[in-house]
Amino acid sequence: MSAAAKAPTDGTRPGRGMLGRNLPPARRFLGSRKRVLVRLGGWSLLESGQTFLGGYCLAQALDRGFLAGHTGTGLGWLAVAAASILGAGPPVRGVFSQLAQLTEPLRDALVRRAVRQALRRAVTDPARTDDRSDTGAVSRLTHQTEIVRDSFAGLVLTVRAFVFNAVGALIGLLALAPELLLVVVPPLVVGLALFLATLLPMASAQRRFLDADEAVAEGVGAVSAGHRDLVACGAQADAAARTGLLFETAERTSRVLARWAAVRTVALGVAGQLPVLLLLVTTPWLLRQGVTTGALAGALTYLLQALLPALHSMMTALGAATGAASPRH
What we know:
The chain is mostly helical and 329 residues long. The chain contains 12 helices and no strands.
């Protein structure tokens, strides 16, 4: 079946249609677990405090301690930062305990839904209830539900980590020097907005590419299997023209997918690398504005150790989840 035959008939785009169908049940599922979300947010706030202390304590250790000639003060601030790292165990344990209260009910709900669909199909179409007819139901009950659960858990962890790391880092930058926000926040926001804008178009492009690739495989297989009949009927030119159209469609969709992948790469660069580059380039101006050496070191710590790794993980997880959420059938 060609890509055109598999396209939605309701006039919606593939990515937007899937998103529109999934949002209402997702809201209902999360809305019924508000207490779990609140507890998850509470544990995550403790991680935000750790992020804040990491950069802030380093800045104070330099400005008030080592650079001012007070080694004991500097060591004291570093000890506070070390204590915050050592105390990260309970928040991490709390986060994963609350995460389990989200992922396991989701898996149970998916299993119940798969069972209901299989039973409904068995009632409405008894001819499909032989041993080989509904292997898809077995896959949904085992393999697919585990994939969805693991993907959901990874998505929650990465988005949560970015949000709360960003809160801690931005509060830390504001506490160190408000001028730092003028350098760090704009490229971060622009890159993140550009990345989010590519999610649905790239999911749609990926679906069209997979459909075209499958159509090429089916078309070439059909020509290979029936080449004797084609020669006997003198239909080589027609078969070549049809196969050529399939290859042209596959080439066109692959180029579209490559363009969106390039845009996503630019977004990752703008959000993930440009803030560090701008911070280094604007260092002379920041020093003239009264920003201290310790504040600059703390800002780099926030970017390199907390904010940018969390941002990269979140973008990777969102990109993978959006691609996986655009099935071809």
